[in-house]
# Entry
Amino acid sequence: MSELRKADFDVVFFITLTVVDWIDVFSRHEYVQLLVNNLQFCQQNKGLEIYAYVIMTNHLHMVASQQEGRLNDVLANFKSYTAKCILAAIDANPKESRKDWLLYMFRFNAKLKRQFQHYHFWQVTNHATPLTSPGILMQKINYVHQNPVRAGYVLEAEHWQYSSANAFSPVRVMEV
# Structure
């Protein structure tokens, strides 16, 4: 990965974490809740500072930084842990009508990349883009909040439950 795409230094980044093949995993509340729980854990225990976020059905956008250390390390741990939790939840969910297909797709994607033994859940890259000015920061925050509107899920950004645009969002964000 290019050094420019690594989130290793002390700035705010626009980050996109995408499920392989854009599989709609987060259309199920229980899987989104696992993601939310781990975001909250990273905020409380890993120094993750989130300024804006949105969880869509197959990806997560964040405007975030790291208090100390490397943001890439936090993101790598986050992706590894959430992948294991979500895959286990899919496997254990008797109501999951797509269980066989989902697990097959994640196994198939693991076979395409040697670094993954059994399953490959998240795309490798974080698409970390440093936000170098207040104008770019606000542009990306707006982009994050408008994502569910552009997708046609809601008419107003604040109506999407899993977004920092929503006052009742389960993930608290930092003041900009």
